[in-house]
Amino acid sequence: MVYLFTGNGVIVKDVYAKNIFKIGERMIYALEWNGIRIGVNILELEEIEKIKTKDAYNIISKTYTQGFINIFFRVKDRVETFVDTETNFPLLYKKDINEGKYHKKAVYEFNHNNGTVETPGGRYEIQRGIQDPLSILAYFRSLDIKLNDIIDIKYFSGTETRNLRVNVIRKEVVKTPLGDFKANVVAFSVGKQERNYLKTQVNLWVWFTDDDKKIPVFAKCNTSFGPVTGTLIDYLEGE
To answer: Which end of the chain has a smaller Cβ tally under 10 Å, C or N?
Structure first.
């Protein structure tokens, strides 16, 4: 569950996600830094797996650097989330992060009934329905949205619960190698809810197709080293 706000910050209703997953859906993105191709990201839904007694969608994100950037900073990341087919809540989250000299593996096991998550660092209390860093994307795609909506989504970062504010800021046409798409431009921001971080701490912008599929066709993230973008270059719808 998330909380939906109007543009002036007034809560209007609770929003429950609907099921839009398709087995075999795959998206491939070309990653660029300052206009230079540096890698690829592959986002796919492979299959349904059994997590304890529940059926779960297995959503996988793989990111690799390519070319000259590997001389300075090699990236080889694999992140997985297993999402309950009935509730769209994450049941299991796995990450294997390899970025330069930084390496991190972790597994989070969610128990939404008793409000806990098990991690390598211990057990933490969570709210029922909390998301993980990858399941947020799938969860957002399953929501009914409109221009100027502001949506707060709670997610577990690995040590604490954080708030991700999602703001549908405008509509525009985005050009990609697969064609031109009418899109909703969505800002994703992490920060304290009492701060006006939508104006000062926007971390990521994503262009989602303006239809029920909400395919992310373009993304932009500003970093201390310059802007990094991801452009959809291949798409398989799935079944």
So the answer is: C
